[in-house]
Design goal:
Length: 165
């Protein structure tokens, strides 16, 4: 009877150890997402409303890149939650006399400057798009439309957000 009791205790300990290791593994695998969601929730103003649309904050720090690349450290920045709307671009086109149909990279830059913002860097776009897939095109920061591409968006250094408050 004592041998059977020891076997039961050993099985229970093995199960507890297995579940604990699984929990630790899942936590470590998702640590970056956990840190990010906490940072976004702790931000006093995760959403910034501007005349050209809402922006979401992307917290400062590094982000995961392929192992052969050095992870860039970015300061906190805001990025348009959604691509620039046709309505916002049409207002810009009317006010500046540009064509509302053919949008060049120069037009994108001019729109962002007109809106009091700037074009995002490639690293900012990569970080802002973290977690988005073609099936669920919403990043861990709430940015939509980056995985599928399409229309452009603008960015803003977090230190410059006060001009919209």
């Amino acid at each position: 009877m004592a041998v059977a009791g020891r076997k039961v205790v050993a099985v229970i300990l093995a199960l507890v150890a297995g579940v604990t290791l699984l929990f630790i593994g899942l936590t470590l695998a998702n640590l970056d997402k956990i840190r990010t969601s906490v940072a976004v929730r702790r931000s006093s103003r995760p959403i910034l409303k501007t005349p050209a649309g809402e922006m979401v904050i992307v917290p400062e720090g590094e982000f995961q890149v392929p192992s052969w690349e050095k992870p860039p450290k970015l300061p906190a920045f805001y990025i348009d939650q959604e691509p620039v709307s046709q309505e916002a671009y049409a207002r810009f086109a009317v006010e500046t006399g540009r064509s509302p149909h053919a949008v060049s990279p120069e037009d994108e830059k001019a729109f962002c400057e007109w809106a009091g913002k700037r074009l995002p860097t490639a690293d900012e776009l990569a970080k802002a798009g973290r977690g988005a897939t073609l099936d669920k095109d919403v990043s861990i920061y709430g940015v939509t439309g980056l995985a599928r591409g399409g229309r452009f968006r603008c960015a803003l250094d977090a230190s410059e957000a006060r001009k919209f408050r």
